[in-house]
Structures
1.
Amino acid sequence: MEKKREIVMSGIRPTGFLHLGNYFGAVRNYVRMQDSYTCYFMVADLHALTTLSETRDLKGHVRRVMAENIACGLDPDKVAFYCQSHVPETAELYLFFNMLAYVGELEKTPTFKDKVRLHPQNVNAGLLTYPVLQAADILLHRATLVPVGKDQEQHLEIARNYANRFNHRYGGEVFPEAYAFNFGEALAKVPSLDGTGKMSKSENQMATIYLSDSDEMIVKKIKGAKTDSGAAEPGAAMSEAVAGLFQLLRLVASEDVVSKFEADYQAGTIRYGDMKKELAAGMVQFIAPIREKAEAIRNDDVYLRRIMEQGAAKARASAAVTIQLAKEAIGLKYY
Ligand code: AQP
């Protein structure tokens, strides 16, 4: 008998253009997992509403995120690839989990505190309960594996809490524990080019490389990346900015090339201009085919509509089973 496949779930917010962090933290693993797991991947448009007060660009962003995922190799026929708002069961489960979520706990979530700092004028309840909606996304399919980047690790701990709380409060084993997944390796964190933090859709666009950047733009951004004046003495620790550049180089260059520049760094002879040239060439070679493919998909209305409808149907079939189990456990069943 065929072994039951583990269930995988993950999502990306349509808040802008996909970047290298989204690729190496998430999409690359979606593609690697699609043949051996039962996968649900979604465009988290409802999550986007927590920070977007202007939704004029939403449609374009949703289509772009879909197209870029597919251009990266995601096969909508192998997985359920859907828009979060097309699966209303998500909102139902979110409501159930809100009864298990404590305000004090949510207020302490670091991502909430960051968002309050960044958007003090828009501290809405949706922002506070973001991890609750995320738990609903994952547990709607009773997923156990969640391919995400390092920045999402804490949200998964929260999702495990809600799963356990639900099972404990209402009885039964409706929800499993879900864990962040990166094939046994540390979760990815693709650094920004300015040496501070991670690449991100919505912050410092010149420090983030997007999958839609032109060749010239990629070269320009890498040229402008922060460096330092080289190792102060042999064996000295790298600055955060230079360590980040090496991390990026490792994503697109051969081991020989990386080792050469590492040795130069240690010897104090590194020429950052040469390293940047190598990095830019590797990035251009990596991104150009994705960009071109995504552009064609993005403009194909008929195809995108078919993908969205097919994805929603698969996701809703799985969601209906979970909602039924959850309602039975809670006791929301009167005849
Ligand atoms: N720099 C990154 N390195 C590794 N993984 C990353 N992810 C995001 N940035 C990096 C992973 O990508 C998936 C989608 O996350 P997201 O939609 O929250 O992406 P974002 O770029 O972080 O988007 P925003 O809108 O700009 O969000 P904030 O404001 O939160 O930074 C996730 O798996 C994430 O781990």
2.
Amino acid sequence: MTPALEAIDLTRSYQLEGLSVDALKGVSLAIDQGEFAAIIGPSGSGKSTLMHLLGCLDRPTSGVLRINGVEMAGLADNDLAELRNRTIGFVFQSFHLLARTSALENVALPLVYRGLGRTERLAKARAALDAVGLGHRLDHRPSQMSGGEQQRVAIARALVGEPKVLLADEPTGNLDTRNGEEVMRILDRLNSESGVAVVLVTHEPEVAAHARRQIHVRDGLIESDTGTTPKTGRGGEGA
Ligand code: ADP
């Protein structure tokens, strides 16, 4: 099956006051359809840079990136934006919701770009909010919700367009332990039930442990990758 995301020898250098910072130094990885992977590493290791590239929010300095089998380099900016809109949903540490807008309208918004009518947009948004356990909060604005609820709205918004991949950048970074656990449980369930691949970036090992695959990044390189093989059946786990 075509991987959802495929990176081959990606590099990304930033030019800063005449100096070149090599944030990624040659990263290769494939994220299969339906996977649940965590990218973990210390601050400055290149996680956000990698996430932005995987999400087509940035272009690599060199290397190949394929989104659902389509090579990024060959696409003009507007075609890339359309591919991104159809294929990838984003969740950010700080939610990025419209503050004065109801949960329902926040979630329905991305569907405007799909050319769907208002009735259909709202019906899909309602179903997405139901899926994150917020069917009773449709008319609430973000300011009337807890951080955990706001992140669940953001997850519903990321999934309403039925993407292949959900990219989550430190999704529990602004939440207390209990709300963070709840958000991770929802991501886990959505991954199992809807088959959307989930890739999350974190510096917290406890958060990364929720994923079925851990990709450790350090100094712009992949240091280790537990791979896609299920954890069971590798032996050494005792009877
Ligand atoms: P992480 O997400 O793991 O904290 P980043 O991908 O943000 O790491 O950063 C990797 C390296 O690239 C760091 O040394 C950082 O300072 C540098 N960097 C990131 N973004 C920029 C930028 N826009 N301009 C210059 N340097 C950057």
3.
Amino acid sequence: MDDCLFCKIAAGQIPSDKLYEDDMLLAFRDIDPQAPVHFLVIPKKHIASAAVLTEEDGALLGHVFAVIAKLCRELGCDESGYRVVTNIGEDGGQSVKHLHFHVLAKRSLAWPPG
Ligand code: AMP
């Protein structure tokens, strides 16, 4: 999508602090980290949010979570734990309208969230 920040990051038109990339996905560090480890995982194809996912996206989602688990092992937060969040719409706090999964780790995360 022409006017989408994360499509531009996925296409390499805007730089990012990349942790992982393949044909389907990109993982990069959040520019405004909310925890000592805070990265985003995005599909390269434009999907507006998790609200429009379908059964056909099952393989993509399985791959997202496998990549998250691999990166958390590499970053040393697999044993201490981590949180995966996807915000949807205005009340959900979604500011970028391209599906992304936040991964936060290396501090104790409160519940419920604010
Ligand atoms: P959300 O509010 O759930 O839509 O999350 C969007 C996230 O994207 C926020 O945590 C921002 O800090 C992050 N963000 C925005 N622009 C960039 C960028 N250029 N590189 C990395 N992260 C970004």
4.
Amino acid sequence: MEHYNPKKIEEKWQKRWQEGGVFEASENFEKPKYYILDMFPYPSGAGLHMGHIENFTATDILARYQRMNGLNVLRPMGWDAFGLPAENYAIKTGVHPATTTVEAIQNFTRQITRMGLSYDWSREISTATPEYYRWTQWFFLLLYKNNLAYKKKAKVNWCPKDQTVLANEQVVDGVCERCGTVVIQKDLEQWFFKITDFAEELINDLDSVDWPSHTVTNQRNWIGKSEGAEIEFRIKNQESRIKVFTTRPDTLFGATYMVLAPEHELVEALRENIENWNEVSSYVSEARNRTDRERSEEGREKTGVQLKGVSAVNPANNEEVPVFIADYVLAQYGTGAIMAVPAHDARDWEFAKKFNLPAKQVICQYYPEPKCPILEEAYTGSGRLVGSGEFDGMEVEEAKRAITERVGGEMKTTYRLRDWLVSRQRYWGAPIPIVYDPEGNAHPVPEEHLPWTLPTDVEFRPEGASPLALSKELKERTERIFGEGWTPEVDTMDTFVDSSWYFFRFTDPRNEKEFASKERIEKWMPVDLYMGGAEHAVLHLLYARFFTKVLQKLGYISFGEPFAKLRHQGIVLGEDNFKMSKSRGNVVNPDELVEAYGADTARLYVMFMGPLEDMKPWNSQNISGVHRFLGRVWGLVEGLKEGEPSKEALRKQHATIKKVTEDIQTLSYNTAIAALMEYVNTLYANPYGKAQVETLLALLAPFAPHITEELWAALGNSTSIHAQPWPTHEEALLVSDTMTIPVQVNGKVRAQLEVATNITEDDLKAAALAHENVQKYVEGKEPKAVIVIPNKLVSVVV
Ligand code: ANZ
């Protein structure tokens, strides 16, 4: 046999697997199905990074394991191919995004194939193809027809110099990434999806999925369910009222001022009464240019302006309180107005300090000990009411309802979740399938005209509008089909729309009549294991769940959660313990790794680095160790001799089957590999037979598919190792038939005896006294006592 040379064998097997179509999922469902999915990648020009390798290898191991267990595995791959980087590259170089995207996909495919990853390529999809985005457009129309898509004005980042809308990522420290001009916020008409209709289900159904708890928490926080009350305050000498949303109606007696969001409509409505209008209106325009995130940053210095000449009346005690505008109150949350209770809210406390406003304590702690101090900071804990008239002594929770009722308020649930803004003033995305009549009314593009294709006659560098606005072809097409004076929508869809339904398409990727047939979806879905990075997980997962719930509600499917089980791979750091980045020069290139060691070593090393979900640094020394291990596996086949296996080899064989099987099921790949290494050591130290080697190859096959396939064939097998049944262990063989018993002389351990487990007490005694080292310490004397604790210890006293 030749030496282990990955170059000689890996490409050969990759070709055979591909030609044999061995990883294609079956559409006859005789075997139970297993749908295993990776978050499909954005095909960037830089090629695969280590996170991809880690993710794809981890799922590949499970996919191969499940196939050996007789499951019908669906393991598809596709491309999240629309997006900004390709468009930005086009702006710089003039190369069309379609060209760069196709090249990047080819490169990704080459790299993935080289890693020996077992995808069903017959189901490959790309979101940037008309065959795919026609269904993305169909989804837009489905939402539109069901009142789940609508248009309204919303803020965008606007660069006044480039005359263009910028994505959030293109705004760096408040200035345009390209030209350095200060970015302003501008109102534009944009399309929204009504995800807020599903807020309650999106929270509740998190209970039914097997996901990492931090991801579930992130989803919950993003949706931000908040239970409280809406209460109205009268404005003195005015008809209008200020409605506030509060989670603490129990503190109403402690409300010492009010705050409106600067954009609140009452500000404009009260203009006549506001004595310091100039000051007020300049604060309003400043606030408009700050993002909500900036405005709600913790610890940020509070700013605001009092509306002089305006005051409100606290409905609990009829006391007059001043009214402010301040940017820490957001226009889009609750009612856009608050009652401020400095004594019990940290932000109000800071604001009151700065503006010299009174704080009135109305809640006192009574547990674990009664305490009602003069406050040094806001007290946000629970307790009983004080200074609240008839409610004094009442508990916080009870008082919430009682006070709300007394002042005619209403208990109310609010969500932080906003509707999903899907319009992008961008070229490289799916066109929104909407046209406008000469009066400017929106109409859906009828389904027969889908795909509503992305025009190619555009300037990538947008000048004051979406690139599609410059397409003659799109304009002419619209007029030709709908009539003179009709105009197309020129925005494209957020690429998150493309990825909100791709997992359905994989079940039926070539369907020309539906996005996927109900039958296929019901057979394959939900996804049994979904894996990808944690960094983009919040929004993508939320949107995918939203689409699934829409389909369920409209009767297209029967279930409401797309991903039954979710796991995230951990971040791979560079050898210097920093995040891999070009500028640090600590990036490990997958191509070079495979070139140097082969795909099997690369796969095995990436899984051996540490627990899959942990953050872990690269270590090139350990790669050679893993590579040597594969060389030793090769050597075991070379050194195979006829004959009976040793007891130890047999026992270890079955123990390893058990351990590796359990570890794969919990994705504990690093410990599974460690067990395989131990097994190899045992086989080197004890006589073994063909069966022990075959078991080793089968257990190792999901991790190192090429070398195991090669050695399997070398052993004379004619079918693929990846089609073999997964080994099972025999419990009886796990039990060792010898045991180690320590022997003490006068309380000190002087020997370890290797004896049969069924040894009699007398034989054990005799064996202990016969041991050379025991004899040495007994010094020829007659022992006073020899005590045997069965299976544990022999103690000699002299
Ligand atoms: C009075 C009060 C007293 C409050 C108290 C809190 C503590 P969550 O839990 O996040 O929902 N609030 C309401 N609308 C707001 C807006 N548009 N912008 C900024 N803050 C707003 O927070 C609800 C609380 O945040 C509300 O309860 C309100 O302050 C404030 F001791 O009302 B509270």
